[in-house]
Amino acid sequence: MTSQTQTALYIVTGSSRGMGEAIARQLLAPGHLVIGIARKRSAALQELALAQGLALEQWELDLNQPLAAAQHLQAWLQAQDPARFSEATLINNAGVVATPGPVDEASLEELSNALRVGLEACLLLSSAFLRATAHLGAARRILNISSGLGRRAMAGSASYCAAKAGMDNLSRAMALDEAAKPAGARIVSLAPGIIDTDMQVALRSGDPAKFPDVAVFANFKASGLLMSPEQAAAKVLTMLQREDFGSQVLADVREA
């Protein structure tokens, strides 16, 4: 197999809606294989891929069960011909916002789900990806979709802040490990800006008595400060394609 017939692999979690779906859509192109991981398939993505003859797989996996999802990814990657892919990228985009409010007013199940999807899945999928693609050396990237709330705390959003802060420091530690290898993967944890998604709906619909910043998020919408998922995805992918990707592990699209 020659390099001309090799494929660029992109794996995107949370690909059934919002920015994850927009990222997967914008990655669909000749010479690319896009794998979306989400609880449900995106009919729009499937229709686009079929109409244009582009390579797409959608794995219906619940990231609330991150070990099973990571094992599935690792087994699939290890079953591929080592020469199939010219490069490989994992985009950990999936995240969950618990009902805004203090942790003692959220169910234990809801809090557990937020950390499993937002942080444990990122850790386990990254481990599986790095292990199974080691032969590709530096032609590997991990892009973790973080948030400004991983870098500053906000009342009423402890589980989301914890997941994103954990993602940031996980990314920094993994980057140190990869830098010690002869051809390690490049890793970035990126805050993508303020996006008009279901998360924003949940935040601006919160109970002000439990979530003091509800008015701030309502104002984002009222003032037209929210990017569309498509706009945000384009900015994220611009960052991904930069030649210096990985030189700064903690990044923000607003500072690029």
Present the secondary structure layout.
Blueprint: E1 7-13, H1 18-27, E2 32-38, H2 43-52, E3 55-60, H3 66-78, E4 85-92, H4 108-132, E5 140-145, H5 158-179, E6 186-191, H6 198-204, H7 214-222, H8 229-240, E7 250-252
Parallel strand pairs: 1-2, 1-4, 2-3, 4-5, 5-6, 6-7
Can you tell me about this structure?
It contains eight helices and seven strands. It has 256 residues and is an alpha/beta fold. The protein has one domain (3-194, 229-255): 3-Layer(aba) Sandwich (Rossmann fold), CATH 3.40.50. A seven-stranded parallel β-sheet has the order 3-2-1-4-5-6-7, with helices on both faces. α1 links the parallel β1 (7-13) and β2. It starts with 6 loop residues before the first strand and ends with a strand.
Keywords:
seven-stranded parallel sheet; Rossmann fold; 256 residues; globular; 42% helix
Helix content: 40-55%
* Biggest sheet layout: 7 strands, parallel
Based on secondary structure, the structural category is: alpha/beta
Kindly report how far apart the N and C termini lie: 37 Å
**Oligomeric composition of the shown chains:** single chain
CATH superfamily: NAD(P)-binding Rossmann-like Domain
Placed side by side, the strands forming the largest sheet appear as 3-2-1-4-5-6-7
CATH arch. level architecture: 3-Layer(aba) Sandwich
